[in-house]
Amino acid sequence: MTGPKGLCAQRNTALEQLGCDYDVVVFYDDDFIPAPDSLARIREFFATHPDVAGATGHVIADGINSPGIDFAKAQQLLQTHANAHERAPNCIVTDLTGLYGCNMAYRTAAIGTQRFDERLRLYAWQEDIDFAAALRPRGRIVKTFAFCGVHQGVKHGRTPGLRLGYSQVINPSYLVRKGTMPLGFALRLILGNLLANHIKILRSEPWVDRRGRALGNWIGLFDLVRGRLTPERIETL
Fold this sequence. Notes:
This protein is of the alpha+beta class. It has helices at 7-18, 38-48, 71-84, 108-111, 127-135, 161-178, 183-199, 210-225; strands at residues 24-28, 32-34, 52-62, 92-95, 103-107, 140-151. It is globular, with a radius of gyration of 18 Å.
């Protein structure tokens, strides 16, 4: 299937097609490689925990803060993990503020007519926190080791630094006003990224556009000061 450009719009297109014909819907990033038994374990997990609305699994390795993990290495990591660990317990590890968007599963009865916020355009940074928060009144949002996989963190096709830097300031601020992100959580996100982008700008990682992110941060701060909480502006930057 194809849909409008943007992560939220694409997920909403899928949800409209699925309707209520399925008990659970699973969202994987296109650079997430699940363990072979993941879908069976997800079905088992939700059957065992009727009070859970959404769950995220165990990320064995995450290449998001590194050059990335190639497909062969990811397959090797999955096999090594399977050989070293017995079948993971089908239990809840902890309750969460939001789920990790690279691998998350939701009960369709909890989703109902709720949809991803399409004002969070393109890469839609923090859309996973926003969506989970909207569903928290309908059930627990949790982490489990019952299912797992590897997030490659592929670098091509990601949001350019300028746009991501803008989203790092504006998206959390927008979600605070919307009521789906706690203020303290948002401040830690914003300040953490501001510091990282400016401290590392002189010795930037080859796979990160720190200069672009820092500039995007400043554009976002100027908009924030003026009261312009416009996450969709990244489409024009």
